[in-house]
């Protein structure tokens, strides 16, 4: 029987702090209120994320004997059957919670998201399709928040936010492919361009009025985002750029595997201010602040349990 700490390491528990922000960003972009339905959808998303982490280590268990022997499976602290059962159970839980939270409209996105998670771990990982597959999964996670109770129009409204999160994820995944071998300056430059594009995309979203499904006084259903909220969103995008950019600069100076792993961890944690920027930029500052505040907590926990 695996101990609790080993299971926490298996699912990369601290990294799950980066997941609810996807759903909240999607809901905010679609003009949906952050309510119990949204929170339930976020819980479903966390379950699917943890399922992917457990399945990842199950799929990598033979390679990790040589490359990451400290992980729970190669170290013998978790049995492979336990990891696979956990991945299956968390996937089922995620889909079940999604159905309860948003019904068929949420499942329309949750089922492809679960398929993307399993496809990534079992088929696309370590191949040329790995980075875009992971980016697609995180983009679907954003659309999951828009689809909770919404339709095609809501998901269309959330598409720019989904693209921003997808580009960031592409950068982190490209960098993560060098966690064992180390990264060249070319890799660091590539990921820097991608993360810069993500920050620029978050700022570009600010130029558009937010879509509000609950505004019955404006036929277009659009309302301008107040200047203070735009300023908050811009500041959060800047914080994201500084945190992830500093880590990428470190890789450019020293591309050893240890530095790359730290940069990947920074990329995972820095997603939270980016999500918060997207949420605030769509007129939901009260929902953005907890997402941004989760970043320092996740960084503290990451010192005890690796998010990569």
Question: Care to give the gist of this entry?
Answer:
Helix content is 74%, strand content 1%. It is mainly alpha-helical and 308 residues long.
Helix content: over 70%
Please, how many helices?
11
Strand content: under 5%
Oligomer: single chain
What is the alpha-carbon Rg in Å? 19 Å
Q: Tally of extended strands?
A: 2
Q: Estimate the mean pLDDT confidence.
A: 90
What features would you describe in this structure?
The chain is built from 11 helices and 2 strands. It is an all-alpha fold and 308 residues long. It has a single domain, classed as Tetracycline Repressor, domain 2 (Orthogonal Bundle). The protein has a two-stranded antiparallel sheet. α2 packs antiparallel against α7, α6 (130-147) packs antiparallel against α7 and α9 (227-253) runs antiparallel to α10 (257-281). The longest helix is centred in the N-terminal third of the chain and has 45 residues, at 80-124. Residues 215-220 have low confidence and may be disordered.
Strand and helix map with partners:
Layout: H1 4-10, H2 20-29, H3 36-59, H4 61-67, H5 80-124, H6 130-147, H7 152-176, H8 185-205, E1 210-211, E2 222-223, H9 227-253, H10 257-281, H11 285-302
Antiparallel strand pairs: 1-2
Please describe the structure with a list of short key phrases separated by commas or semicolons.
308 residues, mainly alpha, Tetracycline Repressor, domain 2, 11 helices
